[in-house]
Amino acid sequence: MRAIVKTAPGEGHLELLEWREPSPEPDQVKIQIAGVGICGTDIHIVRGNWRCDPPVVLGHEWCGVVAEVGSQVRGFREGDRVVASNPARTCGACFHCVTGNPFMCAHRVSAGYMIDGAFADFLCIDYKRCHHLPDHVSFRTAALGEPLSVAVHAAIERTTVRAGDLVLVSGPGCIGLLTAQVAKLQGAKVVLSGLNRDQRRLECGKALGVDLVVNAEQEDLVELVHDLSGGSGADIVYECAGSPASLETCWKAVRKEGTLAPLGVQSGPILTDINAVMMKELSVVGSYGYVWTSWQRAIRLMAEGLVRADALISHELPLESFAEGFRLTQDGSAIKVVLNPLLPADAGNAVTANNGVNLHA
What is the pTM of this model? Predict the structure, then answer.
């Protein structure tokens, strides 16, 4: 089968190769991949500043069709449309596993950088990580089920957005745009901020119902948030850019006794004014990954059309165009790139070619 493989540590070393096709173990399903998103974490891996165990197939945001089931699999059969989640393996016995948060397991093994992931024709995964996908939810939409689950976990399960809250989302990438939509569903007034290079993403946020989009290089974001709040600041701030400058702005924009939730992955250790936590009596809430309920909620939001995940997809490309997909993601030209192994090598950008209508629903 074809697979996009990180072949060695350090920067680069990403190749499209013929790779061993996996066979499911007794408790696994084999999935034919129908869509997989390029994530910010994938960019960190390619740049060499995120853990990776090469040679390994990248890709951890996926959906597809069950092609084969192991002998111990229950509840899934060949032909089922599914989305699937990480971690691929955990100990199953620690406090975090038993209480339902496997991402916190010290023995967590994740597909896409520790073991083979989904930038490939096929993937095998524990069937307990799979979720049934409603027939009317397209694979294009479902390919964003994983980042939507991250947003749901952050904005519903780890923090509490109340009707009437002023929420600032700093960073209009995929996670930021989805978090803004989820916060809006909770009844908040949502401000989405970005930079000059984010104009396309900010426009997308405005089209999706965000109350106000702000270019922080052209407007004073902190002053604007204070004006909107009568001088107090935002009730909840989600830092989704993963940059030191964004985090510094977030400390200033959140109100006293407010909540700051860092979601963006920083590229390394940073210096920041942690005194704000004490002096403003802030709640700083970490949110990483998702739990089972995050996925169930995300699937319902997609199925009921309450969140437009598909609207974020600016490029849908065949596996052979992976280098272009990574370039578009890194330089900010794309909102979200999805690789579709079902597309022929010469398909080009299926989103543009088909006016946003998915051919592989």
Answer: 0.94
